[in-house]
Structure formats: structure tokens, C-alpha cells
Amino acid sequence: MNAWASSIDEQAERDLSAMAKLARGHSDVARFPGREIPSLELIDASTIKPEPVRWLWPGWLARGKLHVIAGAPGTGKTTAALSWCASVTRGSAFPDGTKPDRPGRVLIWSGEDDPSDTLVPRLQAAGANLALVQFVGEVSEDGKRFAFDPARDVQTLAGALASSNDIALIVIDPLVSAVAGDSHKNAEVRRGLQPLVDLSQRVGAALLGITHYTKGTQGRDPLERVTGSIAFGALARLVFGTVRQRVEDDGAPARYLLARVKSNIGPDGGGFAYGFQQADNGDGVITNRIVWGEAVAGTARVLMAEAEADPDDEQGHDAASFLRDLLAAGPVPAKDVFHEAEGAGFSRDQMKRAKAKLGAVPVKHGMAGGWTWELPNREARKCSTEGREGGAQNVPHSWHPSAVTPAPSNAVEVDDL
Asked: For tag attachment on the chain, is the N or C end more exposed, with fewer CB atoms within 10 Å?
């Protein structure tokens, strides 16, 4: 045996000896003097039975999981959550028409809104069964009463729910109140939220936390807009965002959008338009209720950018410029147009308007071919000339049609082709 092999064997013996000492607990004895050495359970994957996600609202609310709904003030985050509470307690339809398997109990803690003049009237207006709604009240200790603190009193809440087996939804508003430390530090956010997540898993309820956007984040990735540490969005299995839609007609009723920003356990993207309607509950109590509109498709980033776009700003011109540059080198498949646009932050609707503004032509390639978009001849020549004279680098495309058939004037273009 050479010296090199001998040194390897000696090192291996030293490593085995060190591991044996660790196994006998030598280091743990030093860490835990006078105490029983902690033990760790290792679970074989083969002993774990796979289980499906238990959906309260398929694709949107899951039992035992954390959900976050974020938005700017005035976009109806709490009212949307109370609408879902009403659906849970009545077993009535959610915004997409699906219904819970059976009515369930809802638990609400709010550090911002008063139940008597705000939350209960909104629940009534939404049609909730108030007999199945409970609010978290004060904590009693040593003859004294304290306001419930979600950063401190979750174990007390767990004790109060020990005999409950029909809690379907828990709402915490605002969710940041569950973090005792710095809400901008990942470790402290995870440590603060974990007791609530554990509680929701134990009782089998969906956990919905309400929070805000960080100011000045319009246009950024929706998940990054959630206030505080990124752990709020990372720990949540589903994240929703709300925005107010800009409208060209100042006299039109305000419209809003709720988008599914993230989902780790189902499809993401998509959402619902909504508005508000005044409701009179009697006894002089006037409140608002949410009125859900049509379902919308697309990624949250594109949906929210489109909703927040100012019709008077330069974005429409930017979309047209983007499309003109994209088509400058020749026809581009419609699918690729939409894909490139989404990556640049433009929606499908913006691309359609830009196509109309530029006079771009949809072209069909034979019976089995797909649709492409191309600039009209005059515009294409202009772009080509500008590119040569100004040294601009047009977007390259290696695909060029060999047999181009212009679309008839009555042709219907399929956006996905």
C-alpha cells in the first residue's frame, strides 16, 4: 500500500471515530448539561400515505394551508374575504360558481375593523349565516382581560378550539400582527406565522391572512409587492392580489380585479373582476357588499398591469413600439407575439390594440398552418430603412413563411394560434 492510500485510510478512521463520538452524544452532553439529550425522529417515505389536497374552494382555498390576500387600501380585500366567509357558512357559490361540500364555521380576528359597525353588517350584506361565524375576543388571565394578540396567544386560541371539528376558514386581519419581531426579516416572519399554520392544519381549516402592498411597487412582480419580508409570500401556499382598474370614463362605476398571484398546490394565474354595491341592512345600517364579475385569464403580472394601466400614459405607445420592433424583421407566429409580450409586461389586449394601431395584418398559412402577424408593406419598409440607417438591431426571427395567404377580411383570428 502506498503512502497516499495509507493517509486516506487513516483519515477515514478518524472520521469514523468522530462520528461514533457524536452518536454516543458526546457533543450533545456539552450542549445540554444536566438534561436529557434530545432525540430526532427520521420518517421513512415508504410509511407516508399520499393524500390529496383538501380543497374548500377548488384551486383557491385549501384546508390546512396559508393563503394571503394583498392589495392597496380601498380595494376591498376584507370585503372579498367576508364574501368568501358567507359562501362557506351558507354553502353557497364562490365567484366561479362552485360550492363547498357543506356549510362550515368561520373564525375571524380583526385588529382593524369593528365587528358591530363594519364586519357583521358586511357579512349580513354578503348573505352569511351569522350563527356559523365567530370572532376572536379577549384573553382572560389571572382575573385580567387582554386584547388577543396573534403573535402571542395562538396556543390559547388552540385550546379554545380544541373541541371544535367544523372550523372551515380562519381569517386574520392584518396578518402582519402575527409577527412579534421584524416583519421584514424572513426568519422572524416564518417563526411568527408557523403557530397559526400549525393551528390551521390541526383543525383542518383554510387560513386566510390579509395584508397590504408596499407603497411605490406598482408595476413590479405582484409577489414582491406584498408588504414586509418575502417570507409572507413564500410561506403562503396561495397568494391573491387586488387592484383597482383604471377606466377611461370618469363617470363609470369603479371596477376592481382579484388575481391569483401564486399557487404551490394548483394552477396559478387567472382571477375575477368585481365591484361594490351599497346595501341597507335596516336599522339605519348602510354598508357595502362585493359583486363578483367575470372570470379573467392570464398571469397575475399581466392582468394587474393591464388593470392599473393609465389610458392617458405612454404605455399604449410603448406597446405599439414593442410590436413594431418585434415584427420589423418579418412575420411572427401569433403565439410567439403573445409569449414575447408577456415577458415584456404587455397583455394580450394591449397587443391587440397595438396591432390595430399599427395596421398589422393577421396571415393564415395554408389549411394546416397557424396564424402570423406582419406589418403592412409600407410600415415594414419604414422599419427596415430605420434599422439600416440608425444601426438599430431589430428583433431576429429565424422563421419565415414560404407560402403566405393573406387572411380574408371576414376571417376570425384565433388568439392562441
From this structure: N
Can you tell me the distance from the alpha carbon of 294 to that of 272, in angstroms, rounded to the nearest whole number?
6
Task: Note the pLDDT of residue 249.
Answer: 63
CATH superfamily of 55-308: P-loop containing nucleotide triphosphate hydrolases (3.40.50.300)
Alpha helices in 128-183 (DSSP H): 154-160
Whole-prediction pTM: 0.69
Question: Domain 315-406 belongs to what topology?
Answer: Arc Repressor Mutant, subunit A (1.10.10)
Give one word for 54, left, alpha or beta, with left for phi > 0 and alpha for psi -120 to 50: beta
Predicted local distance difference test score (pLDDT) of residue 309: 73
DSSP strand pairing (133-135 vs 105-110): parallel
Determine the average pLDDT of the residues in 175-183: 92
357-376 average pLDDT score: 81
What SS3 class is residue 213?
strand
Report the run of H or E that residue 56 belongs to, with start and end. strand 55-57
CA distance 308 to 246: 6
Establish how many alpha carbons lie within 13 A of residue 350's alpha carbon, considering only the half-sphere containing its beta carbon. Answer: 31
Handedness of CA 97, 98, 103, 106 (dihedral sign): negative
Query: How far, rounded to the nearest angstrom, does the alpha carbon of residue 138 sit from its chain's CA centroid?
Result: 32
3-state secondary structure 89-142: HHCCCCCCCCCCCCCCEEEEEECCCCHHHHHHHHHHHHCCCHHHEEECCCEEEC
Mean pLDDT of the chain: 82
